[in-house]
User: What shape does this take?
Amino acid sequence: MMKNKVLAITLLQFLLVLNGCSSDSNDATPEQPVVVVKTPKLTAYSKNAGEVGETITITGENFPDKISDIKITFDGLAATIVSTSATEIKFVLPQTEKILPKIIITILDKEIYNEITNGYNGNIAILPAPSLTSWVTQENTLKEDGGIPRIMVINDKVMYLNSDITGARVYRTLDGGVTWNQWAVNGFSAGFYATKNDEGWSHTGFGISKIAKGGYLGIDTFANFGEVKDVQTSYCLYVDDNMTNGTIVTQFGDVFTTSNGVDFTQVYDAHLNDEGYDRGSVNKSIEIDNNHIWVAGQKTIKTVRYPFVLFKNNETDGWKEHYLENEPNSSVNEISFADKANGFLLINGATSSTFYKTTDGGDTWAKVYTGEKFTKFTFKDGNTGWAVLENKIYKTVDGGVTWTLDYTHGQPIKSIAYKNNIVWALATDKIIKRYL
Assistant: This one.
């Protein structure tokens, strides 16, 4: 009996202990699950460059689902976040002063390491939005302090230009002026020509170099002129896209052509002839193709210096000269052709400019304007054109007969050109555009 009583007491104590342990277990705070915070990762942009107001997408990993957790700035200026998901963030490009501002992406108050590699060191270029009603400006990252004798626009992204400072170069942009690179060595304001394939020729001051795609900064006088030794600096160069058929016009007005891109034959001699016509001095040119080239400057006729144009304006006729005999002791300062028939030239006097126009490819010229002392000009067609006067751009819609002020900039404008419904003008700090 006593043995059964002891056993019952022992069992009761065991149950009480077990019940106590169970109660303690229920009262304890349950362990919290471990939350793994994954680091956001940037993979790519939908575009490396865009216009103000354009929506860009960043793709990546581990992005938050709340817009309020994301901040994107360009040189400190916040962009508007449109949407977010685990793998995409969409935002709108803001208007910035610099064309290539520094982008910073912050998520949950932490700056994200940017692993995106592109041509802009992980940044995004922001260009101005085109306008059909006004001129627009963007930062000129080249910031060339010298003059710009020649612009060659290929399309809305590709442009070449040379400078007239010491150690001159031809510079090229492939992205609408966001970045510039040296493309070729160039003599003081000398000639160059670039094809749509990024190849071409450049006069280095020592001779003509062939420029390969991507640019060439050496001096490679590839041209063979045979027995002709007196080949002077050339301000007029043209070569076709195949780098075979081409023309060179020297500063004296001697013309050489090639059909294989290497061997040149002289087809026009500008030396003194029996009528007293002396060698010319030409340093302005416009080239449409190998059969439509105009070179301008000054030439002496029996001690009197006259503006003149040396040109070829069709496939069958040879090279011809035209003198402006009513403009003695002056020179052609600029020449431009809108097409194979309609061309303009500018003669600057002491205080004013005179425009001449041709409608037959240069055979005849008529005076259309005398007034402001313009320095550069360009034409879209036979009627519509733009001319530069210091920091101002004037416009004509009647073939140069009348001009009206169209735009004023804060610095002098160095050059102007037209291509594919865009007018380009360059100042030291800005590229100025007019979309048509």
